[in-house]
Amino acid sequence: MAKYMEMIRIRFLMMLAYRTNYYSGILIYSINIGAYYFLWSAIYGDKSSIQDLSIVQMTTYIAVSWMARAFYFNNIDREIALEIKEGKVAIEMIRPYNYLGMKMMQGLGEGVFRLLFFSVPGMVIVYFIFPIQFTTHPATWIYFLISILLSFIINTQINLLTGIATFFLFNNDGLIRAKRVVIDLFSGLILPISFFPVWAQGVMDYLPFKGISYISSMIFTEGFHGNEIFHGLLNQTLWALVLFIPIQLLWTTAKRQLIVQGG
Amino acid sequence: MSYLSIFFQYAGQYLKTRLTYRADMLVEIFSDLLFQAVNLIFILVVFGHTSLLSGWSKDEMVFIYGFFLVPFAIFGAFFNIWDFTDRYIVKGEMDRILTRPIHSLFQIILERMELESLFGVITGLGIMFYSGHQLGLSLHWYDPFVFVLLVAGGALVYAGIFVALASIGFWSDSKTDIMPMMYNIGNYGRYPVNIYNRIIRYVLTWILPFAFVGVYPSAYFLGRDEWYGYAFFTPVIGVIFFGLSVVFWNYGVTKYRGAGN
Known about the structure:
The structure holds 2 protein chains of 2 kinds.
Chain A: H1 2-17, H2 21-44, E1 49-50, E2 53-54, H3 55-72, H4 76-86, H5 89-94, H6 99-129, H7 138-164, H8 166-169, H9 173-186, H10 198-204, H11 214-220, H12 227-242, H13 244-256
Antiparallel strand pairs in A: 1-2
Chain B: H1 3-20, H2 22-46, H3 58-78, H4 84-90, H5 93-98, H6 104-111, H7 119-135, H8 143-167, H9 178-186, H10 198-207, H11 215-222, H12 228-255
């Protein structure tokens, strides 16, 4: 366990060394939040609420889902793909740790860094520009923190799956890009799931993506009431557990038919 | 040597290299389509909850998005200069470019082209024809010519802004994130400008004129005569911005000092 903790720490310090790169990131996210803010204001027009969300809740939803994205988002699929292509994965495999576990910890180190140096200051800045409301219930904050941790796990698991797919596809830049687009839409980042037509919501109930953004953002904006919060967290937990199965299966198959190209 | 024949030589070579990895190219085109679909789905889903958005109907919004895709695809196919500083200045590739007797910017356009982006033109046209049909728009004999002119204007606006930003690389080769930022600002142009406040609208019209890529030229085809002035101004803005950026580029080239040995 200590070596995994160490990995989180090292990644964190690595990110800290390049922290200036993140100031512009906050600006880019704010630009995106701004675009959606104006769009949603126009959509609301003089309606006071759509799908039980007021315009202030909606603005908060957009802001928090972008800022939470900074936490759960990582490029480990790209990193794994690169290590497989360059043959480095062979060396990683003989090291005395679980390769996938280590990748996940690196992602977590990055995530914690971005949470502290990107999401939190970003949220404060956005708070001064757009009409956003923070909840004062401590319980909501705790649920939210649990929820984004689960978001991170689900998103990272999907990244691991995409990364491992390189073993079979050799070049999966296209898949990585497609995955990112699918997640942006189906996770509820650009549009709350409750806005979709009912049949589409039914489909998304059977997909893991809404656990990445929608559930945590709805908890934060208090768009979920009572049992909905627990249902949401339960849904996330189940997906986080279920997704380990395909990862293990793919990983075992991949190791068996591994061809190291160079290295 | 004619620039046109050089262009076709490069395009021919490019197609050969791309067709070697057909599967990869297909996945790339597919993920482009997916990306375009996401924005379309956003518009469609949103209009499940409202009938008008600042006076624009669903089909009009879809039409504007369809139009936007066409100049954006042309820009994406020929102006991949977002990593110009890294690729040409820091790595010293610019030295190679400058020893050849063709305009430096033209060479970079040729080297970095990504012709598969042009599929966006087809998607855009498809979306426009579909929503135009829904709106009952009719085509005049001169509309295709106006379309070409307005699309060219829109693509030149994008090109002008990004060429100008790339030129900054001649003075400073430090890493900036101004290019990705500009791509995100460009997204504002996909939607009607009257949903934004006065300041942003002004910026999108006169300073970073992304509104001339989407809503202004579309207004002509949608018959929104209150915006006609802006619509017909599109090619002018395009030529002005692109012209200025080329002047800026040429001036930058004279300041280029190479990167080390």
